[in-house]
Amino acid sequence: MSAPRTGAPRLSVIRRPRFGGAALPGRRGVVLADSATVSPAPRPVAARPAPPTSAWLPTAPCSPHSCVDSTASWAAVPRATARLVSVLVLVLVGVALTPLVGRLRARTRDRWIRRWCRSVVSAAGVRVRFTGAAAPTGGLLIVANHISWLDIPLLAAVRPARMLAKTEVRGWPVAGPLAARGGTLFIERDRLRALPGTVGRIADALRDGAAVVAFPEGSTWCGRAQGHFRRAVFQAALDADVPVQPVRIHYRLADGTASTAPAFVGSDSLLASVWRVVSADALVAEVQVLPVLAPGDHTDRRGLARAAQGGRHAQGDPHIMCA
């Protein structure tokens, strides 16, 4: 007989999968992105389940603790409170007037929506600089980098449009009902099977002459870092044969220094992000409307996404309009 083993029992190392890609629907069927890899857990304990990933559910490394500029100051509390009250009043007025505004003629309705959106941003204490030509009329896919909840009224000031948003937004207080009444297209980001249907609904809206706003990065970033444009939403523009309007958004201080105070990232709450914005001093939002990408310029969604992404870094000599 062999001698009994002594000492602490050996524990097996538990490994968990880390998924680097997802299945994406394409014209030739389903295409798999990066293959899955396996890496060991740092300690021999039960690993947490990996978060779900999909073409609609990318993640950004930005967090409010490591990326976001603090604006905390007791001296700013009275001013911030007044700004917050002003924003809430304007939002509630907008919700109340939505049925009435919806009955106006399209041109008049869009003009009032633009004014209201600029008023909300201004009430939050943010000055806006719009550059570039006006967005075209008719069916249009508007794509932009995503940093803050402020991006939404800023893009609506460029051209009122139907937003593409995650289903969780529907449950937000005040903002959820307002988004639903505004014709927002909601995405079930954790269900790949819903992706073709969502692309089809976006294409139908574009064919009907509507403008649709999408954030192809799929997640908010702090502004100093940024993600890459996912391709799926661009398929809707190809199917509907409509142009794509790239827009670039930056937030700066009055002296031109980049600011991450407006960022709404990671575990940040909407209220915390709003309070940071209204507490900040001399924030400036720069919204650059870049040259439109005409239908037919790019025949596949990969090239179209790449062109729209590259357009965010284009430099020009646009005419500056201040709100």
Features:
8-stranded mixed sheet, 323 residues, alpha/beta, transmembrane, lipid biosynthesis, 8 helices, 12 strands, two-stranded antiparallel ribbon, disordered C terminus
Report on this structure.
- The termini are far apart.
- The strands form three sheets. Strands 8-7-9-6-10-11-5-12 form an eight-stranded mixed beta sheet, with helices on both faces. The protein has a two-stranded antiparallel sheet with strand order 1-4.
- The chain has 323 residues and is of the alpha/beta class.
- Helix 1 (77-101) runs antiparallel to helix 2 and helix 1 (77-101) packs across helix 7 (270-279).
- A hairpin with a 2-residue loop joins strand 2 and strand 3.
- The chain is built from eight helices and twelve strands.
Number of strands: 12
Beta percentage is 15-25%
Question: Per the principal axes of the C-alpha atoms, what is the gross shape?
Answer: globular
What is the mean predicted local confidence, pLDDT?
A: 80
What is Rg? 23 Å
Q: Span from first to last CA?
A: 88 Å
Q: Count of helices?
A: 8
